[in-house]
Write a structure and sequence with these properties.
The complex is a heterodimer of chains A (about 625) and B (about 550).
Chain A: H1 6-21, H2 30-53, E1 62-72, E2 75-83, H3 85-108, H4 115-134, H5 138-156, H6 163-194, H7 199-205, H8 211-229, H9 236-240, H10 246-255, H11 260-267, H12 269-274, H13 276-299, H14 303-323, H15 329-356, H16 374-388, H17 394-409, H18 411-437, H19 453-468, H20 477-486, H21 498-521, H22 537-543, H23 548-570, H24 583-597, H25 601-624
Antiparallel strand pairs in A: 1-2
Helix pairs in contact in A: 1-2, 1-4, 2-3, 2-4, 3-4, 3-10, 3-15, 3-19, 4-5, 5-6, 6-8, 8-11, 8-13, 10-15, 11-14, 13-14, 13-18, 13-22, 14-15, 14-17, 14-18, 15-16, 15-17, 15-19, 15-20, 16-18, 16-19, 17-18, 18-21
Chain B: H1 2-10, H2 21-43, H3 46-74, E1 86-89, E2 94-97, H4 98-118, H5 141-148, H6 156-172, H7 176-194, H8 201-233, H9 238-247, H10 252-270, H11 278-285, H12 288-313, H13 318-341, H14 346-367, H15 380-404, E3 405-407, E4 410-411, H16 421-424, H17 426-440, H18 446-460, H19 464-490, E5 499-500, H20 505-523, H21 526-535
Antiparallel strand pairs in B: 1-2, 3-4, 3-5
Classes of the chains: A mainly alpha (about 625), B mainly alpha (about 550).
Chain lengths: ~625, ~550
């Protein structure tokens, strides 16, 4: 039966492509087909997972080879998939949460005339994401990796009539290419070192390779992971990506795609186990992102961006855990799953709020929605309790374990993670107060209302999962389940008993909540965003996403732009023709281009002659020097 | 007197050159058909001449291709060496070896597809895309008259076949004089063809003249390089030059100058920076079917010649020329990718993309990885052969799309007119998008595997840092290609939007073949890669 695991991918892929080529007639039921495809894939995933449960520990890694993708000499890559304990969990998360979000989108996108296309993209995303997690070869994984990138790009820019959406899509694409550079080079390195890019073979052979190879591979894969998972320094695209429709933010930019980096690190555990330096880099990246994301989350007034900051921060936790090695891998995955539940829940909740508030995302225009949107409030509340880590909700279990493991590694790392938990409690409480609790600050003509049932049912489903996700940890089920993959870790002895640490964490969280209540209940919340000059330097930095964009602009974008201008000018193609992204700008440019465009042969010949001179001289200089 | 007489009888008899006709048959078939085409041009009645010429060209190419397959499979028997297959033929003038015959194969495929585009007559209301009478001044009364009488230049087919012969010889020439003659045989018909566009004739003629002047200019350097090489090695034969270079017979400066000048001539043909300046202007001005033929064919033939000269003749001094070629490769990739961002014309954009691809190909070339006995890693030569195949087919496909997007003035190549193409004609826009993705090197397209193989060859050759740069630049270029896709699918059309002509079965075939090959080589590249790897090394 596991030979058929490619069906998991094929079903949504076929549906997605079918919906794309289908004409207008498909509009009436396209969304139903898309949802059904995702649900079918989920059901098949459940069947496979169940039969995996029925097997012995050693038999739980089921590989199948679809066909030989590349075979030329030693250049051999199989289009192969592996359904094991780790990818099985991911399949359930992706298709399960994915299906709920498909259902939700039926309502959310009801009035969009391109709804069929939206569902087609969602299906293609699901297929690509499943390829990523099921791949048994890094090159196949890379295929899925590029696929989710493409789907994300298309979906961020889905509302292309908004310039901001188009710009955000472009930014996501460009930043992700930087990460892809790491991936591609990493795979190339695997080939040259081990002659294969099979995940199993590379992680097996790494112990025989030199330490520097492991470190280089680890750092290259980390670069890839940073791009996909919006980790510092490649974090800047995620906040802009919130321009996409909210279900996209929930599915791709919260629950699944952005966690691909964590998956990659855990899947490549052999490489990271072999290199202390690479693991340390992962820890540092995770810790920095965790704090930076939380900081940004505190300062944003846009509900989706606040949640995006929180996503960054939570993925930082997962990265941190993944960097701890065998002690943390299972908890990274555990937090990834619970986060997938509660963050998708809250994003969809935010979408529901926006739906009732005429697509306004500004939290300063909300307030008092508790009574008008009871279901959204209740489900969002459960997500809130889960993310800040109130026992016994899902996030409590998973975050508690990560902080505990971090203290086991290093006191300061643990302290950073602990601080993050407090800040998380602060900004999430702030978000709750501004949206649901405080006084009404609605703009005129807005009549909040509860969303239709097709939207609230998925919310309820995810809320239940957010509340109960912790059961995965009962009698350490998840750590034992993943142990064949991640390796066994001896329990670290902490300076204080685990229960005391749990208490400390809970107290820190409580302090965060109380601080937010004290801060935002003291006086009414201003409807207008206070000017930059009137807020503290910390809030200002947070609002500006810690100046990440400005930094990118200064060290990458502007020099590149100058370089392009220079090259264009140098090439005799004149004019200020750089980035003519929007088609209607092209008309003007062309008129201008036409005149100097008729490049003179004499100048061409001169260029060539110069080239000849340089070539000859360079050759002489290089050789005779 | 008697003594003189007797000494005259003692002269060695003039021996007829020994030509391996069966081995060289593909070249002879194309040359013969081209000559036949000239005769047809003189004697066949005008009314049905176009069809006869087109049919003759297609049939000739198919026959030559079938024979090429036979020659390729037969190569093994000729040489015992494991790495190289084939033999030196025609008194040492030609080297019929694995890579050379592989190149014949792909050149014939490119020629076949281009001939189908040449023969397309539905787009211009029953006339071909070439001018009716090239001698008429553009816009003159006699031009109007020629159009009225539906005059057509049917010489384009024999001309293209002559160019094809030149390309095939260029890819297999084993001495520098043959190589020079082949270079001219391939170039001259192309200069002419460039000037024959039916629409925008001034631009087309300008392109032809530019191409001719700059081509002549580069030929001079090439020829001078040949002369210096002869001065250094005392022979035109690549294998003799190799011996001289390996033994370092002295006169290093002369060798270096010779290397550089030879490189200039070859780098001009492949369109590498700083010898690329002609590319955008010529690609834009030439009739689109000719552009397709040039982009695919010339590049393939010139790359084979480049590989042959530098791997066989100058292989012994590779440490001298590699740093320079590395620099050229980096600048070429970079400039091609960056400047294509600012282009607003589809054909110019494809021209810069072709420059960038020349850069990626040079990366594989610089790796100069010849393979090892115990390993079957992909070699530089086979990676480039694979890349050329993928690039050639996709780019003929892309240019075929260009011929179909039209307005009242003929092809509309301005990018802004392509906005919203995905709505009016999803299949056409979809195939163009596929070619763009392949150029960008996105997985599951042939372009990805092509990039992968050249990078992997360069890596095996020890140029890992160059590979990093290459991957970075391809990331940069991908941005641009994806932008074109976005333009086609997600931007509202300006004005009434583009109209898409309905092509005849000819262009449809070309598009179908290109799409299938681009996808097929991405999903199952194995057989072709194996074939390229099987082609082995050059014979000496």
């Amino acid at each position: 039966m596991f030979d058929l695991q490619w069906l998991l991918i094929a079903i949504p892929l076929a549906s997605g492509l079918g919906l794309l080529v289908w004409g207008k007639e498909g509009d009436r039921f396209g969304h139903l087909i898309g949802t059904a495809a995702s649900a079918l894939s989920f059901l098949f995933g459940v069947v496979l997972f169940a039969s995996l449960l029925g097997k012995d520990g050693e038999d739980r890694s089921q590989s199948t080879k679809l066909f030989t993708w590349i075979d030329a000499g030693s250049f051999h890559v199989d289009m192969g998939f592996t359904f094991d304990q780790l990818s099985g969990l991911f399949v359930l998360l992706i298709t399960g949460v994915g299906t709920l979000i498909h259902v939700y989108s039926i309502g959310y996108m009801a009035h969009d005339e391109r709804r069929r296309r939206f569902f087609a993209f969602l299906n293609i995303f699901i297929a690509a994401m499943l390829t990523l997690v099921l791949a048994s070869d890094y090159l196949v994984l890379f295929l899925g990796w590029e696929g989710v990138g493409l789907a994300s790009y298309l979906l961020i820019g889905f509302w292309q009539h908004k310039d901001s959406a188009a710009a955000a899509a472009k930014k996501a694409f460009v930043v992700n290419r930087v990460g892809d550079l790491g991936m591609a080079t990493g795979i190339m390195l695997m080939f040259s070192e081990f002659g294969t890019s099979s995940i199993h073979a590379v992680n097996g052979a790494i112990t025989g390779a030199s330490g520097s190879v492991a470190t280089a591979l680890g750092l290259l894969l980390l670069l890839g992971a940073c791009g996909k998972s919006a980790q510092v320094p490649l974090q800047s695209w995620l906040l802009d990506a919130m321009e996409g429709p909210t279900p996209v933010s929930a599915l791709i930019h919260a629950a699944t795609m952005v966690t691909a980096g964590v998956y990659l690190v855990v899947r490549s555990h052999g490489i990271f186990d072999a290199s202390e330096a690479a693991r340390t880099a992962v820890i540092v990246v995770g810790l920095v992102t965790l704090l930076a994301g939380a900081w940004i989350g505190c300062a944003k007034d846009d509900i989706k961006k606040a949640l995006a900051g929180s996503t960054m921060s939570q993925i930082g936790y997962m990265m941190l855990a993944a960097g701890l090695g065998p002690a943390g891998y299972a908890f990274a995955i555990f937090h990834l799953i619970t986060h997938g539940f509660f963050k998708a829940n809250m994003f969809l909740g935010a979408g529901s709020v926006m739906h009732g508030m005429d697509d306004d995302v500004e939290m300063r225009h909300y307030g008092g929605l508790r009574t008008f949107m009871p279901i959204t409030f209740a489900t969002f509340g459960l997500g809130y309790l889960a993310i800040i880590g109130v026992p016994p909700f899902a996030g409590f279990w998973s975050k508690d374990k990560i902080i505990e493991a971090a203290f086991g590694e290093n006191f300061w790392v643990g302290l950073g993670a602990l601080l993050g938990a407090g800040v998380t409690a602060f900004y999430m409480t702030r978000l709750m107060i501004m949206t649901f609790l405080s006084e009404k600050r609605w703009r005129e003509g807005v009549h909040p209302h509860e969303s239709p049932r097709v939207m609230t049912w998925p919310l309820i489903g995810l809320a239940v999962l957010s509340a109960l996700g912790g059961v995965l940890l009962v009698s350490n089920w998840i750590t034992e389940w993943l142990e064949p993959i991640t390796g066994h870790a001896e329990h670290e002895e902490l300076a204080v008993p685990a229960i005391v640490l749990t208490l400390i964490i809970t107290v820190v969280v409580a302090i965060g909540v109380v601080a937010a209540v004290a801060f935002y209940r003291r006086e009414p919340i201003a409807v207008e965003t206070p000017a930059d000059s009137s807020v503290s330097i910390f809030a200002r930095a947070g609002r500006h996403e810690l100046y990440g964009n400005e930094l990118n602009d200064a060290i990458v974008v502007r020099p590149t732009r100058h370089l392009t201008r220079f090259l264009v000018w140098f090439d005799g193609k004149g004019v200020d023709g750089f980035v003519t992204g929007v088609a209607d700008r092209l008309g003007d440019t062309s008129q201008f281009l036409r005149k100097p465009q008729t490049g003179y042969v004499r100048s061409y010949a001169l260029t060539m002659f110069g080239g000849v001179a340089v070539l000859v001289l360079a050759l002489l200089a290089v050789t005779l020097a | 007197m008697i003594a003189t007489f007797s000494s005259a009888t003692d002269l060695p008899p003039i021996s007829a050159p020994d030509i391996e006709y069966s081995l060289l048959a593909p070249v002879f078939i194309i040359a013969g058909v081209a000559v036949l085409g000239v005769i047809v041009e003189a004697f066949w009645p005008r009314s049905s001449r176009f069809l006869v010429q087109a049919g003759l060209a297609v049939v000739g190419i198919v026959a030559a291709f079938a024979d090429t397959i036979w020659v390729f499979t037969d190569l093994d028997k000729l040489d015992g060496s494991r790495l190289a297959r084939g033999q030196v033929a025609a008194e040492g003038a030609l080297a019929v070896d694995g890579p050379g015959v592989f190149a014949w194969g792909i050149l014939l495929i490119f020629g076949f597809l281009s001939m189908l585009l040449f023969a397309e007559r539905r787009l211009e209301g029953g006339l071909s895309g070439f001018t009716g009478r090239a001698a008429d001044a553009p816009g003159s009364a006699s031009e109007a008259e020629a159009i009225k009488h539906r005059v057509e230049h049917t010489e384009v087919f024999p001309l293209a076949l002559f160019a094809l012969v030149g390309m095939m010889l260029f890819a297999t020439s084993n001495d520098l004089l043959t190589m020079f003659v082949a270079l001219e045989v391939l170039s001259l018909p192309l200069y002419l063809l460039c000037g024959l566009a039916r629409r925008r004739r001034l631009m087309s003629q300008e392109a032809a003249l530019k191409y001719f002047l700059l081509g002549a200019f580069s030929s001079v350097f090439f020829l001078y390089g040949i002369a210096l090489t002869y001065g250094y090695a005392g022979s035109f034969r690549l294998s003799d030059i190799d011996v001289a270079v390996t033994n370092r017979t002295g006169g290093e400066n002369m060798l270096l100058a010779a290397t550089a000048l030879m490189a200039v001539g070859l780098l001009f043909k492949i369109g590498a920076v700083p010898f690329h300046t002609w590319t955008p202007d010529v690609y834009q001005g030439a009739p689109t079917p000719v552009t397709a033929f040039m982009a695919a064919g010339t590049k393939a033939a010139a790359f084979l010649a480049l590989l042959r000269v530098f791997f066989v003749a100058f292989g012994g001094s590779s440490w001298d020329w590699r740093p320079i070629i590395v620099a050229v490769a980096i600048i070429t990739m970079f400039l091609g990718a960056v400047v294509s961002i600012s282009q607003t014309d589809v054909k110019r954009m494809l021209a810069y993309s072709s420059i960038a691809h020349a850069g990626f190909l040079l990366v594989g070339f610089v790796g100069a990885y010849a393979g090892a006995k115990d390993s079957s890693r992909i070699t530089s030569t086979s990676s480039i052969l694979f890349y050329l195949t993928v690039y050639g087919v996709s780019s003929i496909g892309a240019f075929a799309v260009v011929t179909l997007v039209r307005d009242s003035g003929g092809e509309t190549t301005h990018l802004s007119k392509w906005a919203g193409l995905g709505k009016t004609s999803p299949v056409l826009a979809g195939s163009f998008a596929l070619f763009m993705l392949s150029f960008a090197g996105i997985p599951l397209t042939g372009g990805f595997i092509g990039k992968w193989t050249v990078f992997s060859a360069a890596w095996s050759g020890g140029f890992w840092w160059l590979v990093v740069i290459g991957v970075l630049v391809s990331a940069l270029a991908a941005y641009f290609y994806v932008r074109v896709i976005v333009l086609m699918f997600f931007t509202e059309p300006v004005g009434e939007g583009p109209t898409v002509a309905v092509p005849s079965v000819l262009t449809t075939t070309v598009l179908a073949v290109a799409v299938i090959a681009t996808l097929g080589l991405g999903i199952i590249p194995g057989p072709l890669l194996d074939l390229a790897q099987h082609a082995g090394a050059f014979v000496r």
